[in-house]
């Protein structure tokens, strides 16, 4: 999960090597609380086994505002899981899972820079984390879709109830997914891309 | 998360300080993103610092900064400093991500949609 370093392979497997023609990459960020299924979603669509990168928060790297709510320590380490999808011979898409809680927002600094958009992954049993995340993304002007990961044991809410509970504007797509399934996770990314497409066509819609 | 008693998998923060020669990243403004692709121009050269040599080995085909960080087990900020050295010495090439100013770009989004359809 977010803070457990998985065993680290020494390097990419031969079949995981990107072609020499890979010219540029883009990012999509998956945001959500612990245990909501970020890593599961990344893993189900990734062409490589999800990898883990660690980052430290040190005073040098973080704006003063971002330290609010973080324990006063000289440095804090957080791990992010990520995966990769080769879009074509030139373009590579990276998916980064990042914790949604406010105390980890310092990670967002470099993460959202240049990101295409975000998926807010929601567990209906714990909606509270999502409020802050959605508010923060709106503030930063990051386009996002909301995906409800359907846990079998979670209460099933009609989508319009959830939309109201999350105070989500009509324009923002809200979808249900099963993060364990590749096609379902793919459809979440597709929903984000279609949304981005609509924003690009009619920028005022944002 | 924060666990002051435990350092990095293969060392302590002090060791990281040694690896980067005392420099802290990502202040070098090398403009490396997590998804900047790195390609080595050759194999590792004799006499290289082990971490530099490891990067040269990893980047025989294009690899993102995040992947380099993951495979080396070093924080992105440290990897950024090491890559800055190799870039300055012209040992590696970097391919920056699609520029934020170009986003959202219809052609790019359509390419991603096409790519996802094939999954």
UniProtKB/TrEMBL annotation, chain A:
CDD domains in the record: Ras_like_GTPase
Protein name in UniProt: ATP/GTP-binding protein
Keyword Zinc: no
Matches recorded under InterPro entries: Gliding_Motility_GTPase, Gpn, P-loop_NTPase
Top-level taxonomy: Bacteria, Bacillati, Actinomycetota, Actinomycetes, Kitasatosporales
Protein source organism: Streptomyces goshikiensis
Pfam (any one): ATP_bind_1
Record keywords, A-Z: GTP-binding, Hydrolase, Nucleotide-binding
Transmembrane domains' residue ranges: none
Family: Belongs to the GPN-loop GTPase family.
The keyword Secreted belongs to this UniProt entry's keyword annotation: no
Automatic annotation (TrEMBL), chain B:
Source organism, top-level taxon: Bacteria
Pfam family, one: DUF742
The protein's name: DUF742 domain-containing protein
